[in-house]
Amino acid sequence: MTPTRARAGANIALIKYWGKRGAGDLNLPATGSISITLNELETVTTVTPDTALSGDVFSLNGALIEDARVLRLVSRMRAAYPAMASYCRIESVNSFPTAAGLASSASGFAALVLALDAAFELQAPTDELARWARIGSGSAARSLLGGFCRMHRGQAQDGHDAIPEQLLDHTAWPLEVVVAITQTQAKGTSSRKGMTHTMATSPYYSAWVRHNEQVLDEAEKAIVSRDFDRLSELSEASALQMHASALAAEPAVLYWNGSSVECLHAIRELRQSGHGVFFTMDAGPQVKAVCLPGHGESVATRLQQVPGVQSVVSSALGPGGCRI
Ligand code: PMV
User: Fold this and answer.
1) What is the pTM of this model?
2) I want to staple 115 with a disulfide (CB 3.0 to 4.6 A). Which of 6, 106, 195, 303 is the partner?
């Protein structure tokens, strides 16, 4: 029983996904989203089918864990594909801190479905794998594609049209990303919990959904025409509006620490002094700086000096997930 490996890069949303539509557990997004896939921050997953096993076994960064979401997705896929006859060993390794707002679940579920597809020779088309990845984590379907990706909200109840589409590949506009890590331990409120609570209690949530869905076409236009200034405005607004809807929940969902806020100020100052850079933040305290080609190094040097920043990680944009 040969081990089979697949990799997928983390992705960072520029136009955010925050909240679900419909009942059930298909993880259908309330709005579409637009993301960039990273090269250096990745998950590598090895799947080894083993007829001697009496259940699937999952390890993350070398430690065996009972991850209900992973095990549930694998058994759901097994029920759909007769070729997944035996149980398997799944070994997943992240090249960055898990659960600290660096989208490890996105690269993790994307690498998982790709490795299962390869190990059991499912030969499922990308859209089909994207639907499985989305059930694992709403943002994971985007990590199957490289470069710039638009995830569609879709209309169907069965989610067949809630799938990602590539807008540009990673070489077409080679932006650079610098992540300022302001905290290394796992975050307090998962994105899943944070968005569910925001939907249930935030008076700003419906405005968020209405507005975010409207800016997708404009952001797509800015990407396709390489309009960095417009993309900066739309992306910073989407990130802050997502956090504003969470801050307005009762009790508030607050992902930032003091250093996160210092990083946002530093990035604004860098932009005023002529650097091509904008910020975004997800469900955690890390700050992501998206830079024009050639600007990443000076942005990294500046962010490293912000009090409370523990380290910075730089990445190019990368290709979609694949078997390795
Ligand atoms: O896929 P999830 O459940 O981890 O949700 C991701 C939510 C954000 O990272 C905050 C935004 C996004 O679109 O990636």
Assistant:
1) 0.96
2) 6
User: pLDDT (tens digit, 9 = 90+) per residue, 154-195?
Assistant: 999 999 999 999 999 999 999 999 999 999 877 679 999 999
Closest C-alpha to ligand 1, atom 6: 139
Tell me the C-alpha distance between 284 and 181, whole Å. Answer: 10
Model confidence pLDDT, tens digit, residues 188-236: 799 999 999 999 999 999 999 999 989 999 999 999 999 999 999 999 9
Pocket flag, ligand 1, residue 197 (CB < 6 Å):
no
Structure tokens at 221: 């236009």
CATH class label, 4-169: alpha beta
CB 62 within 8 A of CB 47: no
Phi, psi (deg, nearest 5) at residue 26 = -90, -5
Q: Is any atom of ligand 1 closer than 6 Å to the C-beta of 212? A: no
Q: Can you tell me the distance from the alpha carbon of 231 to that of 249, in angstroms, rounded to the nearest whole number?
A: 27
Token pair of 89 as six digits = 């060993």
Sequence ranges of the domains in the chain? 4-169, 176-316
